[in-house]
Specification:
The protein contains 2 helices and 31 strands. The strands form 7 sheets. It has a 17-stranded antiparallel beta sheet that branches. A 3-stranded antiparallel beta sheet has the order 3-4-11, with no helix packed on it.
Length: 496
């Protein structure tokens, strides 16, 4: 039920995953005078395989208890994708120019290639037997990533330092890119169905959206996404045992990719305005032209309209006071942008509604602190504190034909989800987590020691909600995850 966010009946599907990868890592260093050179390779090759079995090859969709549609699946199937290879070569040098200035220089080359071996699947309730030929070079990327960093002792007395750098990083990828265009991957078609009695296998269904299946493609000119990271920090020693610092951190992403259905363009949608009783305000939904229903040709490509950037400032304090040491850091930052990836059709204007906002892991304020203290009896007492503002929430509303009944219009795509509030307009509660540890080392021999430990996690027993139902309806904001409750763990370490 997409309104109540509930699931009834047996588990809809079973998965069986299997994979195998061969990894080789090697490096060599050469140190001479003011240079510390290092070079190496990182090599990975293997495959990922997954089997899907849907119970009945179908799931029925309801809205607040009212049946609206069924999703029929192309199962059973077993898909496989190969990574051959994921190769990286790097060269770096720590170069001390003089007593006050050092440089850290680096260059990395990466090659990423993926393929899909020949495979097939037996027939199911809604599809017949299938076979697919091998697909080579589904992705074939060669990229270079430079890096430069510096550390400058401003006055030459080792008390004031300015550090910074500019670095390029490729976005990590696995076999999921090949999965997205594997014609043997799991897919479903949504069909209108208003009876509580589900259709029988093989029954003729009309008005279905169609399977994506072998209609998924990757643009041969799609680039590998990457980011540039910019950092600068000023660090100052105050007194004999205290240092403070302030730093700026910036990240900007480039060549992000998304999916467009080239068979249905933005001009194939007509705007309709209605007032939702659940929200009490006018909404606009874009209705797909009936003549385009079931037309699918998904193209995964680099989209210049997609972006993401982060800017943050961090303050840090480190100090030692007799038997204690204290660390504290406070960060103010903002991660803003648009969604990217393969789950959204960017030719569908409904998916561009409030789609830009604070990204999923954006936390405006973050406080991190920790301490250690030597209690009497050689008992070590330590703690860590994590405080941060909550993650951004979405607000979604699923439009159905009942919303448009007063206008006498039928929604071609059966249902349509809308983001009615931009990510970040609502947030989860502030988190406050304190963890404590007590430990004591007992030396029982010159080479043997025993250290019993007692850890208390979430000392304040915080129950802040970390995820909840964000679909507008009776279950809105019903928690699905909260902070783990207070936990006492007793353990130990034996060293020999």
């Amino acid at each position: 039920d997409t309104v109540l966010s509930t699931m009834t009946g047996i588990s809809p599907r079973q998965d069986l995953d299997r994979g195998s990868y061969t990894t080789v890592v090697a490096s060599a260093s050469y140190v001479t005078g003011s240079h510390n050179l290092k070079t190496g390779i990182q090599f990975r090759k293997g495959y990922f395989q997954e089997s899907f079995q849907m119970n009945g090859d179908m799931v029925q969709i309801l809205q607040n208890g009212v049946p609206t549609s069924v999703r029929i699946y192309n199962t059973p199937l077993t898909h496989r994708e190969d990574v051959n290879p994921d190769l990286g070569w790097f060269l770096q040098d720590s170069w001390r120019l003089n007593r006050r200035l050092s440089l850290n220089l680096g260059l990395r080359f990466d090659r990423m290639a993926m393929s899909i071996p020949a495979q097939g699947a037996p027939g199911g309730a809604w599809v017949g037997p299938r076979s697919f030929p091998e697909l080579n070079d589904v992705v074939s990327w060669n990229t270079w990533s430079p890096r430069i960093g510096f550390a400058w002792d401003v006055f030459g007395n080792s008390k004031t330092a300015i550090k910074g750098g500019i670095s390029k990083y490729d976005v990590l990828e696995g076999s999921s890119l090949a999965q997205n265009v594997n014609p043997n991957f799991i897919a479903f078609s949504t069909c209108p169905w208003t009876s509580l009695t589900a259709p029988t296998p093989g029954q003729a269904l009309t008005g279905c959206t169609g399977f994506s299946g072998n209609n998924n493609h990757i643009d041969p000119n799609m680039k590998r996404p990457y980011q540039w990271e910019y950092t600068v920090m000023i660090q100052r020693q105050i007194g004999a045992n205290t240092s403070v610092s302030v730093g700026y951190y910036g990240r900007k992403f480039f060549d992000l990719f998304g999916v467009i259905n080239t068979a249905v363009t933005p001009d194939d949608y007509t705007p309709l305005t209605f007032t939702s009783a659940a929200i009490g305000q006018p909404l606009t939904v874009f209705n797909q032209l009936p003549s385009t229903l079931g037309k699918i040709n998904l193209l995964q490509k680099t989209l210049p309209s997609l972006y993401e950037h982060y800017n943050g400032v961090e303050f840090q304090l480190n100090t030692r006071i007799q038997k204690a040491s204290v660390f504290a850091g406070f960060t103010i930052g903002k991660d803003y942008g648009t969604p990217s990836g393969t789950s959204t059709d960017f030719n569908n204007p409904n998916n561009l509604y409030n789609y830009a906002g604070n990204e999923g892991y954006d936390q405006t304020y973050q406080l991190r602190a920790g301490f250690t203290y030597q209690l009497p009896g050689k008992i070590a007492f330590a703690g860590s504190l994590r405080e941060n503002s909550g993650l951004p929430q979405n607000r979604t509303y699923t439009v159905s034909n009942s919303d448009l009944a007063s206008q006498g219009i039928k929604l071609t795509q059966v249902t349509q989800a809308l983001i009615v509030a931009a990510p970040g307009a609502y947030r989860y509660p502030w988190q406050n987590l304190l963890d404590l540890r007590f430990s004591r080392v007992f030396r029982i021999h010159e080479r043997w020691s025993i250290e019993p430990m007692a850890d208390l996690f979430n000392t304040f027993n915080s129950s802040a909600v970390t995820s909840a139902v964000t679909a507008i309806g009776p279950s809105l904001l019903r928690p699905s995850n909260i902070d783990m409750g207070r936990l006492l763990r007793l353990g130990g370490r034996i060293t020999f």
